Amino acid sequence: MRQAANLWQAKAALQAHLTVVSEQAQDDVQVIDTLPLPVCGYTRSSRDRCFKALADDALCAAKKLDYYGFKLGLRIARSGMIIAYPLLPAHPHDSQVLDDLVDGFRGTVPADKGCIGAARGQQGLTHRAVLVVTPPRKGMTTPHPRCLLRACARIRKGVETVGSHLTERFAVARIRAHDLWHFEHRLIRKVLAHTVGVGSVRTQKTDCSSLTIFSRMEVPGSSISKGILALSSLQFCFADPHSAF
Hints:
The protein contains eight helices and seven strands. By secondary structure, it is α+β, with helices and mostly antiparallel strands. The chain has one domain. Strands 1, 2, 3, 4 and 5 form a five-stranded antiparallel sheet that branches. Strand 2 and strand 3 form a beta hairpin. The N and C termini lie close together (about 10 Å).
């Protein structure tokens, strides 16, 4: 099935616009995390030809997985809607890519223990009005009150759920692309589908039509391009929720 990879910019713009129209991009509490994206079996990494100059070896401590590939950064609102999803190199530690995860955001960022190093040196983040809250390791003191830590621990479960959605329902870790362009388009397409799903669930909970979010969209360009984007949106709305796209 062809997926119109040349429309990747339109799909990315549509996903970003949906987060703004739904007012989720303005959420002042957004959770961050990363997902491993292997591009081939670890034992076959030395024979990789598609991503040789881009992918690298890494260890995912949470899944106890040695893999070769990339890392998908996630920043989500409290509703579960994906706000940012940068494609990151696999080898650097999460604390080293924190700037990419919080780029353009101001507010509170619950994170896991992997970001403790960056959270303890908050000078640059404070200047950008970003507060990273991580659970302390055993025997470590923390400047955050317990009530804040408990609240952030509850909120952090949301990003783990989103990660499971992308991995199990959308098969984001299944590599079917042979170049970075198609690989990134595949990620954009799956994140867009997830965003539409979250948006339609939110509108249904408020007894509104699932198309309310699209009725307020103003897509730049000709009437033909508007029609294409509207049809694409409707297809995502009424697609089988159990399909892997």
